[in-house]
Specification:
378 residues, alpha/beta, FAD/NAD(P)-binding domain, 2 domains, five-stranded parallel sheet, four-stranded parallel sheet, 30% helix, NAD(P)/FAD-dependent oxidoreductase
């Protein structure tokens, strides 16, 4: 019997598990393959929906499903997070003290926002990366009556379009409340343009200029002074604020770093095969990789499809059949019920088109279709 172990029940792990369950249905039914998922939670959350919670457009309970309900028959599911990895011995140990042997392992433990990594940021900023934070942001936005709103961005962070999206959505939000003439939106970014992707940055600059949103680049957060309501940068500059919206830096999960699998929780990953470097039977996907591409849901989705196809082929034929090309697809909410998107891979950069209402409604539809997507049906 071949044992496949999936560590992590987020988007990447769930799509991979369902993909494998369908590709290996005969082998699962015959007892030739055992497919196991270990997760830290019995709940699955649609994380991009937190952006809409922050604006009162979605209630938090709409973002959750029971994880077991999303899995194909034949997948053995346990809420028992992995505490230690022995990749050389093909074994993991869990928080409950159990051990699991495997022939193949896929690690998709995700990432987490770490506002506490920047002095003063956690105590003074609002963000959209946890349910609690998104609700706090909604409260802050709904009670704000005017002044300077600063958007500050830490790196690396997941959902690469969030700094832009939250800025555009605040512009609309304050306009709808009749406060736009009393609000100054000021956007900062750590490198010398408004986004890590060149063409996205150029597109955003034109949109910001049109809307009167001010911005500055080469602003890397050093610390936040909540008493003076100031953010200081590593470059020696300062931004004042009345309301602070932060995009916290992210790290991988502690179990990855604790087991010395990678720095800051990112596992060294082969960009084509998605193998853990040095381990042909171990794979990484989603935010857990150290690949220099966007940490986004679509990244995890496309990687899961590649790993699923390859793992099934390795079980059946003993070899891989395809490489991952770095494909990513990100919607970008652009305000006024308009959106565009960025589609790119390792070799082809994105080329965002003018925002349209059609793309906006397609993104809202995807928020509902996500539950089919995570089942691997889209």
């Amino acid at each position: 019997m071949k044992k496949i172990l999936i560590v992590g029940g987020g988007m990447g792990g769930t799509i991979l598990a369902n993909n494998l369950a369908r590709r290996l249905r005969k082998e699962l039914d015959n007892g030739d393959v055992k497919l196991t998922m270990l997760s830290a939670s019995d709940q699955h959350m649609y994380q991009p929906g937190l952006l809409y919670v922050a604006f009162g457009k979605v209630m938090p309970d709409e973002l959750y499903r029971d994880q077991a309900s999303l899995l194909e028959p034949g997948i053995e599911f346990h809420v028992d997070p992995v505490a230690s990895f022995n990749l050389d011995g093909n074994q993991v140990a869990t928080a409950s003290g159990k051990t699991y042997d495997y022939d193949y392992i896929a690690i998709a433990t995700g990432s987490q926002a770490k506002p506490d990594n920047i002095p003063g940021l956690m105590e003074n900023c609002n963000h959209v990366y946890t349910e609690e934070a998104a609700l706090k942001t909604w409260e802050a936005l709904s009670s704000f009556e005017g002044g300077k709103v600063a958007v500050v961005t830490g790196v690396p962070h997941k959902c690469p379009m969030v700094p832009l999206e939250v800025t555009f959505m605040m512009h609309d939000y304050f306009q709808e409340r009749g406060l736009l003439d009393k609000v100054q939106l000021h956007y900062t970014y750590p490198i010398g343009r408004l986004h890590s992707l060149v063409n996205v940055g150029k597109w955003a600059q034109k949109e910001f200029d049109r809307l009167g949103i001010t911005y500055e680049t080469l602003f890397n957060m050093k610390e936040v002074d909540g008493d003076k309501k100031q953010v200081h940068s590593e470059e020696g500059t300062t931004v004042d604020y009345d309301l602070l919206i932060g995009i916290p830096p992210h790290k991988g999960m502690e179990t990855i770093e604790d087991n010395e699998l990678g720095t800051s929780g990112w596992i060294p990953t082969d960009r084509a095969t998605l193998n853990v470097e040095g381990h042909e039977n171990a794979f990484v996907l989603g935010d857990t990789t150290n690949l220099p591409i966007s940490k986004a849901g679509s990244t995890a989705h496309y990687e899961a499809e590649v790993v699923g196809e390859n793992l099934a082929a390795m079980v059946k034929k003993g070899r891989r059949v395809r490489d991952y090309d770095g494909k990513v697809f990100c919607f970008i909410e652009a305000g006024k019920d308009r959106a565009t998107f960025a589609s790119f891979n390792y070799t082809t950069p994105p080329d965002p088109q003018p925002p349209t209402e059609t793309v906006h409604w397609f993104k809202l539809a995807y928020n509902k279709l996500y539950w089919n997507s995570v089942r691997g049906l889209l």
